[in-house]
Amino acid sequence: MIDKIITADQAVAGVKDGMTIMIGGFLGTGTPEIIIDALVRKGVKDLTVIANDGGLPEGAYGAKTARGVGKLLEKGMIKHIIASHVGMNPLIGDGMIAGTLNCTLVPQGTLAEKIRAGNYNLGGVLTPTGVSTPMEHDENGNMAKDEMGREKITIELDGKKYLLERPLRADFAFCRATVADKFGNFYSAKATKNFNYVMAGAADCTIIATEKLVEIDSVDPDLWDVPGVVVNGIVEGEPKWQI
Fold first, then answer.
1. What is the per-residue pLDDT for 59?
2. Start-to-end C-alpha separation, the chain
3. Is pLDDT above 90 for 208?
């Protein structure tokens, strides 16, 4: 069997300046913190980050350090963030005003489905969300472009208009598990599921950080929500979940 157990620094060794990465989590809940810390140590820059949000800044909810994607924003490592909710981290607004950060907001359900489409090799998803808004046409009446610069497409079915939202994939997906086995089968407890499940497999390389690592066949396989076949690397030692 291939040995998938690696260190956090090994997990980010292949990440290069300008790459696109996905990071699971929801405002610091369910984010693979030890992998993000390794990214900060590596010091890569000009990243495109696909995430639900911009994490939390230092001091939010009494946190002594930034949380989640907020750590990368704090170090100026992100060039473009593609997310659904950025209002909790003022560094995003500051970066946009200064012209140092590009931010593309995508409705949360649409973002999840675009990632899912990338994960399952689908051509895209149809959604009425965004029809007749700037998500469909720009201020000049031209077809809008999506977060990757692709022109939007509209399709009419049974008299109803939809946007075709195309798939999203990344070079790396970094996800968080509560329990994983040594093959990479894993589950995430409670609220930590969030984007971790849909992102695992939606990249050329998926790496998980897990709270607990167990032997193969030591856990009822019905408990696994994500199959290890989509996981390329496993990092042990993720701290217990904190809100």
1. 84
2. 36
3. yes
Q: Is the pTM of this model over 0.85?
A: yes
Task: Give the separation between CA 135 and CA 129, rounded to whole angstroms.
Answer: 9
Q: What value does the mean pLDDT of the chain take?
A: 95
For the purposes of burial, counting CB atoms within 10 Å of the CB of 17, is it exposed (0-12), middle (13-18) or buried (19 or more)? exposed
> What is the mean predicted confidence (pLDDT) over 75-97?
96
Region of residue 68 (phi > 0: left; psi between -120 and 50: alpha; otherwise: beta): left
* Residue 219 one-letter amino acid: V
Q: Which one, of 43, 12, 6, 45, lies nearest residue 174 by Cα?
A: 12
Q: Rounded to whole angstroms, how far apart are CA atoms 19 and 157?
A: 37
DSSP state, 85?
B
Q: For residues 23 and 44, what is the distance between their CA atoms, to the nearest angstrom?
A: 15
Q: What pLDDT score was predicted for residue 243? A: 57
DSSP 8-state secondary structure symbol assigned to residue 150: P
Burial class (CB in 10 A: 0-12, 13-18, 19+), 241: middle
Alpha-carbon dihedral of residues 170, 23, 43, 238, nearest 10 degrees? -130
Q: What is the pLDDT averaged over residues 234-238?
A: 97
Q: Is 234 helix (H, G, I), strand (E, B) or coil?
A: strand
3-state secondary structure of 177: strand
Q: Which residues pair with 48 in a beta bridge?
A: 20, 80
Total count of residues recorded for the chain: 243
CA 19 to CA 229: how far, in whole Å?
Answer: 23
